Amino acid sequence: MLERITTLLKDFNVQAFQNNLIEWYEKEHRDLPWRKTDDPYKIWVSEIMLQQTKVDTVIPYYEKFLIKYPTVESLANADEQELLKVWEGLGYYSRARNLQTAVREVQEKYDGIVPNTYEQFSKLKGVGPYTAGAVLSIAYGIPEPAVDGNVMRVLSRVFLIEDDIAKTKTRKLFESLTKELISEQDPSSFNQGMMELGAIICTPTKPSCLLCPVRESCQAYKTGNERNLPNKTKPKKIKTVQLIAAILLDEKNRALIRKRPSDGLLANLWEFPNEVQQAGPNNMLTIFEEEIYAKHQVKVRLDKPLFSIEHVFSHLKWEIAVFVGKFSGEIGNDKSMQVISFDEIETYPFPVSHQKIWQQYKAKFINEEKGDINDK
Questions:
Q1: Domain membership flag for residue 175
Q2: DSSP secondary structure string, 353-366?
Q3: Smallest Cα–Cα separation from 247: which of 355, 332, 91?
Q4: Are 209 and 267 found together in one domain?
Q5: Where in the sequence is the domain holding 317, given as residue range(s)?
Q6: What does residue 280 show for φ and ψ, rounded to 5 degrees?
Q7: Contact, 229 vs 160, CB < 8 A?
Q8: 208 phi and psi, to 5 degrees?
Q9: What are 125-167's pLDDT values in tens digits?
Q10: Are 19 and 7 within 8 A, CB to CB?
Q11: Residues labelled catalytic
């Protein structure tokens, strides 16, 4: 790899590239809340939230999160259910759990001070090479590369690199290349400049090359290949799973909810009872009722269908047929189940799909002014 890096940088004016990028970033960067602090904890929170989530979506969550958890100590001592409720709607909930685990280690092992070395910081739960590089360079001014999808797109075009960016070895190539390119004097502006360039100028489909501060360094621009790069393997086809979910009420119009397992997809979030659809239309409701009874010893009777919703994950699509029904029986010591009032539902952390179910149910059945139930 060293030989390839040497070849790529032969006759490349690193100083000019750095200067043009940093000067542009200082003048043109977006006004974002996490750019107004050098607190490594707050920068760390922003970087975790920004993983696989758009900037505009993150901003209100980031601001709300830091009001609730302004310090390492406050997050380390937080109740997990309250944390998940604050995170509710951002998705990829393992990010929140991993962040709390890591912050607790910082509190216990480093007296609440975020480590300023790559070796220590990168060992924390949920901290990969990108997060480590971003936080260390932005908060501490340490010249560590921060290579995300935006940065790989920029570098693939600047150096006309055709390697598949979905492969680990390609990411390592870009990390090594960035290590040689990064400004020792201002690694924060360099790394943020690279990310910003990929986000607003060197975009995936229609790069604004005439506005690019480093176009004179860009081989793809010079050869007319800017729209052909980067190369990336097409993702596998998303698996579709059909589910039945139900809002189940007792004689007091209280709802039955259950907690998801402590590991796996959407761990520890609450949801309305649901099961994978295992039969055709004639038998699916009976099987659902039998499944719920077998798992929770609760008798269920589904009354009528309400609506259907879809929810798409990065690797999976849920098609959910939603019903309303009644339940009877005691949940006993089953801590994974709760019987709660409609008002209490708002205090539990639900995944987005089940938030959608609840919002549509409310819109269809609940008169919020009177607080009663009407079948419209």
A1: yes
A2: HHHHHHHHHHHHHE
A3: 355
A4: no
A5: 239-373
A6: -75, 180
A7: yes
A8: -90, 70
A9: 999 999 999 999 999 999 999 999 999 999 999 999 999 999 9
A10: no
A11: 47
